[in-house]
Every structure is written in structure tokens, then in C-alpha cells.
Design a protein that fits this description.
Layout lengths: L5 H10 L6 E4 L6 H10 L8 E5 L5 H9 L9 E6 L6 H13 L5 E7 L2 H8 L4 H7 L2 E4 L10 H16 L8 H9 L5 H15 L2
Parallel strand pairs: 1-4, 1-5, 2-3, 3-4
Helix pairs in contact: 3-4, 7-9
């Protein structure tokens, strides 16, 4: 997550000292879950579990049962991260809102990730207002790669340094032509796609 802007990191750090729910919004591949994990790691409860709940994979009933009953078996507390919470349908949103109201979250913190469209959907009534109000008590938008173009060369250099360390290589940078290609490419998976490409290029570079 070091590729994120200083302003995003500053706001994220300020969230570490609070137990209020956090909503992280942004496109696929910008590192929302990694940022949620970092907020957990730098909080007072860093030694406690980080429980990731994928709202795209689990049914609303399973998520609801986990919040109502499963947490009682995990009395240690920690952070629950609801990944892509806006993928739930209306019924699922209502079930989740009910479960959060009824669950004992006294020793748990709730974070969630969603697309930026969740704000508009909540305003238009397409996303459950009660659930949105609970999840977004603290909210932070994570910019995508297109919105971070001014820092792209620094981001590429950071990924090269990381790749060198992990792969045992000594690549020093990219030439002007390669940089132009990287800058003009539309990275569908944002930072994740760029990082994957850089790692592969570092590995095969002669």
C-alpha cells in the first residue's frame, strides 16, 4: 500500500486510533483490503484476528449467521472486514443490517470495502440506507491508477525495488520508451495489474 498517496495514508493512519466502522471505496485492484488490514495492524487490537468476509462468495444468510452466532465462539475480538459489501442484493443488505444491529460487536471493529458507486446508490435508495449509515461512519476513497498518473513513475520504481528484493534481481529502472508504454496502457486491474506486469518484466529482463 506504499504506492498510495500521502493524503490517503494520512487519513488511513488517523483511523487506526478509533473503533468506529470504516468504509473503503474504490475500483478493483487499488488495494482496499490491504489497506483495511494495515489499519487493523496499526490499531490497538493488532494482535487480534482479522476476519475477512467475502460478500461476493458467501450468502447473506451465512454472513448473518456468522455475525450473530459465530462471533460468540471467537470472544477474542478483532476486525471484521466485509469485502465488496455493495455486491449484496437488497435482501442481503437488509439481513446484514439486522445482523449488525443484533450482534455483540463490543470487542470487534467492522471495516468494509465497496465500489465508489455505493455513495450514489445509497443516496438514490438503491443501497440500504441503514446499512450504509452504519458502515460509513468513517469513510475513505482510494484513488485508482488513472487518478494517480502524476505519481506513476514513482509507483513503477517502487514496484521494481520490491520485485528486485523478492526475485533476487538488480533491475535499476525502465527506459523512456518502456515508461511511455506503461503510462499509456489502460490497467484494468489498477495497481495490482501494474505490479504483476512489473514483477514479470523484472524477472525476465536481461
Amino acid at each position: 500500500y506504499n504506492y498510495l498517496s500521502q493524503e490517503v495514508l494520512r487519513v488511513a493512519r488517523s483511523f487506526c486510533g478509533s473503533n468506529l466502522p470504516v468504509l473503503l471505496t474504490g475500483d478493483q485492484g487499488v488495494g482496499k483490503v490491504n489497506l483495511a488490514m494495515s489499519i487493523h495492524r496499526y490499531s490497538d487490537g493488532w494482535m487480534k484476528p482479522f476476519a475477512l468476509v467475502d460478500c461476493q462468495a458467501a450468502t447473506p444468510e451465512v454472513i448473518s449467521d456468522f455475525l450473530r452466532n459465530g462471533l460468540r465462539e471467537m470472544e477474542c475480538g478483532g476486525t471484521i472486514c466485509l469485502k465488496e459489501v455493495d455486491e449484496l442484493d437488497k435482501k442481503g443488505q437488509e439481513l446484514l443490517a439486522d445482523a449488525l444491529e443484533q450482534a455483540d460487536l463490543s470487542v470487534w471493529r467492522v471495516t468494509s470495502t465497496a465500489s465508489a458507486a455505493i455513495h450514489r446508490r445509497a443516496k438514490e435508495g438503491a443501497f440500504d440506507g441503514r446499512l450504509y449509515h452504519y458502515l460509513s461512519q468513517l469513510s475513505l476513497h482510494v484513488p485508482n491508477l488513472q487518478q494517480s498518473r502524476q505519481d506513476l513513475q514513482n509507483i513503477i520504481n517502487l514496484f521494481i525495488i520490491e520485485a528486485n528484493g523478492r526475485l533476487g534481481r538488480q533491475v535499476t529502472g525502465v527506459d523512456a520508451e518502456a515508461l511511455t508504454l506503461l503510462e499509456n496502457h489502460r490497467w484494468q486491474d489498477n495497481f495490482s495489474g501494474l505490479q504483476q506486469a512489473i514483477y514479470q518484466m523484472v524477472l525476465i529482463a536481461e
